[in-house]
Amino acid sequence: MQAIAPKTTLIDLQYLGYPEAIAACLLEGDGELALVDPGPTTCLATLERELAGHGIRLKDLTALLLTHIHLDHAGASGVLVRKNPRLRVYVHERGAPHLADPSKLLASAERLYGDQMQRLWGEVAPVPPENLQALRGGETLPLGGRKIAVAYTPGHAAHHVSYFDASTGIAFVGDTCGLRYPGFSIVLPLTPPPDIDLEAWQRSWEQIRAWEPERLFPTHFGPAGNVEEHLAQLAERTARWAEYARQTLEQAGSDADRASRFLQMVESELHRELPAEAVRRHLAGTAPEQCWYGLARYWRKREG
Question: Which residue in 29, 62, 6 sits closest to 146, CA to CA?
Fold first, then answer.
């Protein structure tokens, strides 16, 4: 665990044994212990161990602040509530029904991950409706003396929200602000199906800018201090990847062929910016070819 601000602690969930892949964040306040994005159930043992090292038990937690319901962010929510029935689970109103009944969420994930579901994510249990606190965006959550602002930030997912803690200047942005590697300047968009919406995404970046945060906290991975540089690089690469994906749709071949060409382009960019081991980890842990499928779905919906 790493303190990144007063009563604000990063937890490296060591996803699949890899460091700096998925970050949760512990927010402590008067009578409150909240987790931003607890991660998948496959990381639950790590989460429990890290909290115990901080003198905290799972049953001491009071709230989960979910940016969205994708399994790498929220997959452990139902199991955590089962272990701690008093947990409040904050989530966008479009995501809440899929936590109460995750059958459609799981069916969608199974189309992407197939027989790797259990290895990657573990158990996905339902969250009882009485534990869910549905958000629209625009709320301010009182959290143990803090005031946490909520914004609706679609683009990566139609049910995505971001949180801003003015007391620390940190915006918890889930996947809205892409993926970064600590120690390197590269910022990568995350564009899996089915919800990619480039116009909505640009508006979400402006919402986050309006908070004037000192740091962004993307779940992948951890705080980024140069906010404008981060967002500018993300916008440029997102537009470039989207255009590349659009052009592949005009080319001959199957979708698998197009996704393969897209993956080769991504690999080339990664090798220019990152050491070989970081590239290997990225390719193993993020399935970047899925970014093509998300962008292709966006263009096909838009162009009919």
Answer: 29
